[in-house]
Amino acid sequence: MKLYLDSSVLVAAFSPEAFTNRALDILASSTEVVISELTVTETRISLIRKRKRGVLTGNELAAALAGLSTAIANALLRVEPLPVAAFRKAEDIAGRVPGPVRAMDALHVGMASILSAELATFDTDQATAAKAEGIATHTQSVS
Asked: What is the pTM of this model?
């Protein structure tokens, strides 16, 4: 199974959160994990924000960033560039799904669609948009 991850899953996988165990289960059960450059940037910035809010120590931030970099370097996470087609797909998705969807969420759903991948996210609006597009989702609820 090819699985596209958004940053909510990666942040939980590399730093302590309510859904950390679920994130680790998702990663462990996937044979091919794909992320985009967008996911990498969002994850790094989210981890930095957690440090600035005092949720992570400097050492925890360094460990989380190193863990992400190592997973990418060891090809546990395959990073795909964000093509222009993903932006057009996101615009189409935003117009088609029944509820409002944020631009970044639509981009992640668009990437999952372009890559013919299932989507793992802990963002309920993003999961709703993916389901409306016919994309199988893995969320915080244990299946």
From this structure: 0.92
